[in-house]
Amino acid sequence: MTDIEQVIMNLIVNSGTAKSFAYNALTKVNEKDYLGCDADLQQAHEYLKLAHNEQTALLTMEANGEKIAISALFIHAQDHLMAAISEITLLEQIIDLRKTVNSLIAN
Fold first, then answer.
1. Is 76 a catalytic residue?
2. DSSP state of 21
3. Where, by residue number, is the active site (predicted)?
């Protein structure tokens, strides 16, 4: 596996893991496990940061003159990152709403 392929695979894995933690956070907020929810959101952001760093590595390679082939795998990796960013942003809003609803139901 080339360096570029390894970076692309890391981008896919870290983006997917970030999304998984965000969806786990949604499950936990629905169960009123706010500490678990917040911990999973923190983990989601950590993996999102790792994925973003992989994307930055690809941009740096290209900026340094290394040719980056636009392959299906590369496009798939970019799609994973953008989906993770979008879904995590939306899930955070849903989680905040769920916390509010839970507090209103409790009263």
1. yes
2. H
3. 76 (tele-phosphohistidine intermediate)
User: How does pLDDT run along the chain (107 residues), one tens digit per residue?
Assistant: 788 889 999 999 999 999 999 999 999 999 999 999 999 999 999 999 999 999 998 889 889 998 888 899 999 999 999 999 999 999 999 999 999 999 999 77
Could you give the domains of the chain? Answer: 3-102 (1.20.58.80)
Of 45, 52, 76, 80, which is the active-site residue? 76
Query: pTM for this one?
Result: 0.91
Q: Which amino acid is at 1?
A: M
Q: Using CA atoms, how far apart are residues 13 and 98, in angstroms rounded to an integer?
A: 28
Q: What's the token pair of residue 27?
A: 């499950």
